[in-house]
Amino acid sequence: MDGTDAAPSDGALGGPPGAGPDDARRAEAGAEAGVLELHVGPMAAGGGCVAHAPDGRVVFVRHSLPGELVRARVTSETARFLRADAVAVVEHSPDRVDPPCPAAGPGACGGCDWQHAAIPAQRRLKSELVSEQLRRLAGIDATIDVEELPGTPDGLGWRTRVQFTVDDTGRVGMRRHRSHDVHRLEGCPIAHPAVEAVGVEAHRWPGVERVEVEASAEEGDAVVVVHRARSGPRTGTRALPAVDAGLVDGRRTVVPPDVLRHRVRGREFRVSAGVFWQVHPAAPAVLAGAVLDALAPVAGESVADLYAGAGLFAALVAERVGNQGAVVAVERDGAACADARVNTADQPQVSVVHAGVTPQVVTGRLGRPDLVILDPAREGAGRDVSAALAALVPAPRRIAYVACEPASLGRDLRVFLDAGWRLASLRAFDLFPMTEHVEVVAVVEPPSA
Ligand SMILES: C[S@@+](CC[C@H](N)C(=O)[O-])C[C@H]1O[C@@H](n2cnc3c(N)ncnc32)[C@H](O)[C@@H]1O
């Protein structure tokens, strides 16, 4: 289903205890302390809509959609703003649907923000959020279409990596929103079938803090990575349940395999347990395609791939620049560097540098790159690294910035624009359906280009 024609079932939001019809009736009675009736406005970063309380303070209302009239229970407040969960909807948005996941809703699983929004509306909201962040932080006025990824039109069954939290009794679940409480789960509808097939939810994981299931959509196999509690007694590995998957305890392999294999644009990539890999099965090919199309690398060029992970972009761009070209891949995770070396072993033009990306690395270790790819984690590259890249002499022909946090991207693009660089292209992709998260590929060109 694409959700567009699925009408919500009643005035209460679908889902768990705490948001059901009883809550709606209590809210409708209007007597419950801490419940406000609110007209909600635009979506804010963080997954909730902006409304105003009677005293004028801003309220961030989760589980609501722009334009709705809702009854919302206040969950926290400061002198400047409140947070609230919509527990009943008085006037629905046409974009509202019944959440496909039974654990979605106020007070329950904190994993997905937008199960209650139709998929086309999710992409529209993400477009608006990206546009707003780039306008506010970088002064960029752009309309951005968030592109659908192939394979999951209903937004379900895509997540090949899921991190579950373990409660005191050893059962797995997800943290509630802004809470340390664990909401127990029996399944996760956005998880890929290869993750669900492992069935970590059916077992007890005593002495464990988190259980991460990583799967290969192409091969159908999986590895479970167990993270122990930092404090408290260590339970022996014998206490770990037997699952039909590899099992890694921290960095120690208990049951092989401890690597997964992925195929992207005709190349095989080895990814060790715990090493970064995109969670949507279509993401590596789509992002690599977007980067290669925008940079248009040619034979003999020199490329820097920063925050290189297991070498996804390095290997694919190395095919374009060929043996006469050069690719420097910089990555701070040693296990990822080891994978990147294996994944580019047939490409002598690639060198992998095990280091954090810093201004010193940018000026001292990259040579004179014609092209730069950077794909940092949520915190972004930062102003200093961006400034060092913008000041490279000679300037790279183009820089592609792959970003999973539009606010970090906006902050860093500002540095390039202030240094005279110009935005050449911008694309956004729906890598994370059902959540507010979105991936952006921005390409900048130097002043003289
Ligand atoms: C979003 S992932 C991208 C990986 C790769 N480009 C891919 O698409 O598979 C970010 C990577 O940056 C690495 N990383 C995070 N901070 C870093 C830093 N300061 N310096 C170098 N690498 C870093 C992480 O270990 C991770 O592998």
Can you describe this structure?
The chain is α/β, with parallel strands linked by helices and 449 residues long. The chain has 3 domains: 91 residues, OB fold (Dihydrolipoamide Acetyltransferase, E2P) (Beta Barrel); 97 residues; 166 residues, 3-Layer(aba) Sandwich (Rossmann fold), CATH 3.40.50.150. It contains 9 helices and 22 strands. The strands form 4 sheets. It has an 8-stranded mixed sheet with strand order 6-21-22-20-19-16-17-18, sandwiched between helices. A 7-stranded mixed sheet has the order 9-8-7-10-11-12-13, with no helix packed on it. A 5-stranded mixed sheet has the order 1-4-5-3-2. The chain is globular, with a radius of gyration of 23 Å. Bound molecules: S-adenosylmethionine (SAM). S-adenosylmethionine binds next to helix 5 and strand 17. S-adenosylmethionine (SAM) binds next to helix 5 and strand 17.
> What's the shape?
globular
- Poorly predicted ranges (pLDDT <50, ≥5 residues)? 1-31
Q: For the report, how would you describe the main beta sheet? A: 8 strands, mixed
- Widest β-sheet, arrangement of strands: 6-21-22-20-19-16-17-18
Full CATH superfamily name of the largest domain? Vaccinia Virus protein VP39
The CATH class of the largest domain turns out to be Alpha Beta
Kindly estimate the percentage of residues that lie in beta strands according to DSSP.
Answer: 25-35%
What's the CATH topology name of the largest domain?
Rossmann fold
Number of helices: 9
First and last CA, distance = 46 Å
CATH hierarchy: architecture of the largest domain: 3-Layer(aba) Sandwich
Bound molecules: S-adenosylmethionine
Structural class: alpha/beta
Q: Give the % helix.
A: 10-25%
User: How is the quaternary structure best described?
Assistant: single chain
How large, in whole angstroms, is the Cα Rg? Answer: 23 Å
* Number of beta-strand segments: 22
Structural domain count: 3
